[in-house]
Specification:
The protein has 297 residues and is mostly helical. Helices cover 75% and strands 0% of the residues. The chain has one domain.
Length: 297
């Protein structure tokens, strides 16, 4: 196993999973789309400034520009926009569980459109991971107030993220990674500002808790998490990188329980154990790396 890739993957998932709790805090005090558009604008400006200081250029390849725009629309505009909307009605733990179904969508889309093949062990690992996610989710529909509309909105967002994961391979090659991150943030901001102005009324309850959550989403999942994700996809390929999202249930539910007081049951722990086995199976499967998406260590 590539331990450097594993460390990158776990670090990314920790950052990504914590974003569900910070997002839940934000949407309870501010309009989701307006806040997210502002977050992307600030994050994009910071990332571009850092990229310039590192000597990176906006002269991207055609493939990078295409992937950056598509990723900005799907990842930032659609996935995160829809999740921020959905989290007005569903908890942070459930949101992280829904997000963790993304690897199965990525594997399916890769098989249908990119003709990628997954070994038997890898396929069983994906199925095990999905089964663990389903077990965790099954305990959430027991009269605890889970909203079906929020669930549907979040599920559509996951599909958008699966598409973004497949196209990011073009943006993760050719250098200028931090510049790419900044530009796709600005794309997300531009996509969201229109719907925000049309459908939302800016009514914000400013508190230290809101400000801390907002700053955190900019610096950690916004900048650091996205940058690590680009590097990880470029290192091990989109399908294997996507399997790390199966860790979202554990970290997402655990962080939500610690910060927001959301419940974590025995069923959750059992589901997480199954998910972990699934990830190990996929990571240990002997699939050859895709030369278009993998780099040597």
């Amino acid at each position: 196993m590539d331990f450097k890739s594993a460390a990158m993957g776990i670090s990314f998932v920790l950052m990504w999973s914590s974003a569900f709790s910070s997002a839940r805090i934000i949407v309870q005090a501010a309009p989701p789309l307006s806040t997210l558009s502002l977050r992307f604008l600030i994050t994009g400006i910071i990332a571009i400034a850092i990229a310039k200081a590192m000597g990176q250029s906006m002269r991207l390849t055609r493939a990078q520009w295409t992937s950056t725009v598509v990723f900005g629309i799907c990842q930032n505009g659609l996935y995160l926009g829809l999740f921020f909307m959905a989290m007005q009605w569903i908890g942070a733990g459930l949101a992280s569980i829904i997000a963790s179904t993304m690897p199965l969508m990525v594997a399916l889309l890769s098989w249908v459109f990119l003709k990628e093949r997954t070994s038997v062990v890898g396929t069983l690992g994906l199925l095990a991971g999905f089964a663990g996610v389903a077990l965790i989710m099954s305990g959430r529909f027991d009269g605890s107030g889970t909203d079906l509309v929020g669930l549907i909105i979040a599920s559509i967002g996951v599909l958008a993220l699966a598409v973004a994961t497949l196209v990011v391979r073009g943006a993760s090659s050719g250098g200028n990674i931090v510049m790419v991150v900044g530009l796709q943030m600005l794309v997300g901001s531009a996509v969201l500002i229109g719907p925000a102005l049309m459908f939302e009324t800016v009514n914000v309850t400013v508190t230290p808790k809101l400000l801390l959550a907002f700053i955190y989403t900019i610096l950690v999942p916004g900048l650091a998490g996205t940058w690590i994700w680009f590097l990880l996809v470029g290192r091990i390929g989109s399908t294997r990188a996507a399997t790390y999202h199966f860790l979202n249930p554990f970290f997402g539910v655990a962080i939500a329980a610690a910060l927001l007081g959301e419940k974590m049951s025995l069923r959750d722990f059992i589901g997480v154990a199954i998910v972990t086995v699934g990830i190990l199976a996929v990571q240990l499967s002997k699939r050859p790396a895709n030369p278009l998406t993998s780099k040597s260590s």
